[in-house]
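Why run this: before we spend reagent on co-expression, it is cheaper to look at a predicted model of the complex and decide which construct boundaries make sense. The entries below are exactly what would go into the expression plan.
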Amino acid sequence: MTKDREILKLLEQDSRTPAERIAAMVGEDAERVRNLIQEWENAGIIRRYKTVIDWERFGVERVFAFIDVSVTPERGAGFDDIARRIYRYPEVHSVYLVSGGHDLRVVVEGDTMKQVANFVAEKLATIDRVNSTNTHFLLKKYKDDGDLFVESDSDHRLMVTP
Amino acid sequence: MKPLNDTVTATPPSGIRRFFDIAAQMDDVISLSVGEPDFVTPWRIREAGIYAIEHGFTAYTSNSGLPRLIQAIAEHLHARYQVSYEKDQILITVGVSEGLDLALRAILNTGDEVIYAEPCYVSYGPGIRFAGGVAIPVHTHGDDGFRIHPEDIEAAVTPNTKALLLCYPNNPTGATQNREDLQRIVDIAVKHDLYIISDEIYDRLTYIGKHTCLSSLNGAAERTILLNGFSKAYAMTGWRVAYACAPKPIAENMLKIHQYTMLCAPHMVQLAALEAILKAGNDVEEMVADYDHRRRLFVRGLNEIGMGCIEPKGAFYAFPSIRHTGLTSEQFASKLLMEERVAVVPGNAFGASGEGYVRCCYATALSQLEEALERMERFMQKIQLERKSTNVSSEALKI
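The model came back. Tokens follow.
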């Protein structure tokens, strides 16, 4: 792995890692690390910095649904145009073009099931060229984007070992 | 009652263990005294172990081990180091510790001498003595990165020398050894007709340069017993599974001892090891990258707080010097534990040439490493102040 890639991976794991620490970890000069990060921010390689929050633990209920959408692609624009019509809604968490029985996989986020269901019925299903929707509500989050949302392994090592 | 075995009775218990009881009873201790990864065994390997138990792989295997595992090890070694071993030259052991014991017992007669570099893993000396041999340590020094000098080895050779025992990357110093020096050591072994036991358990944890598999050197294969295993690379310390590769006559002797004493390594553990060697290459690479980050951070930190440390190029230990504190390794370690609750292992636990050093394992969470560095910095400052005031008062006494 190149040093630059290592730096990005470290930031991806914890975006709050100070440049000095990253520099020490990869054997690089702190000034160069700061400059690189600046460059990546400018170039849009680093999109933004966000925080992984366990909202449920905080006490806030969020409702997520995975919606398989079948569409008729448009001549000249393929799936892009219809995907755009969907991803511009703030309720839409993610949109993927996928292979298999459906075309788009849309993740919708809301405060209540009713709100999400209404969004699907009123906005998503009524878009021209959307042929069908198949909604799956998320019941429990075990692992999300590489992060475990249940207890992780604890350290069972002895205090002193050879 | 009649006296017990003299050799065993005369052997002191491991110096590492002495600290265990004290440290285990204290709260809020950051332990840098472990000798194992802080990763849990990668899931795919654990799952293979569970699958093996679920499907009833609970019987003995053949003495030498599962043929599929032996085959996979042979292929792995050939692909990685271009060394060739046939099936009957490979033996699955219960940890490298068993492999080392078998190797020593397979080749030593009472009174045979084994030369090894110090500081070293705690069981080399006792293991040699338990096998009836005489342990001949050759000292290495921090000033030149704990490099072993071939001429020092040759100077220790006597008519009774039977074998050399090497361990690179090294526990406790983290030192590696370059190919040229290793070749010179093999040449010495050839010249004096010595066996070589090469403990390469940390081979995958090499951060600078490439690991040299000893049996890949000219003239080495016919006299080398290569020991390696799954504990460190695959974070499988508690599974106790390793392997030994040796020339046929030695492998036959080792197999005899193994079949009469251990019988075989656990069946389900061997199946987990098979998954490890075939499928867990990426897991190893990720873990190694992670150790490397912590290695750089920790070693830089040690040097900044006045615990001078050569760059460890392998394993997961830093071996900083504490000579300038005026304390012995044991005094330093126990004072650091009592005053700042950081557990390190005194260097003399690894032989006399480890005196003046302490072993710190950096296979622990980053936040813990940084906290440990802060505590050690405070400790070093305190020691400096204490030394200054003692100097002042002793000068005052002179007047």
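The two ends of chain B are 61 Å apart (CA to CA). The first helix of chain B runs from residue 6 to 10. Bring this page to Monday's planning discussion.
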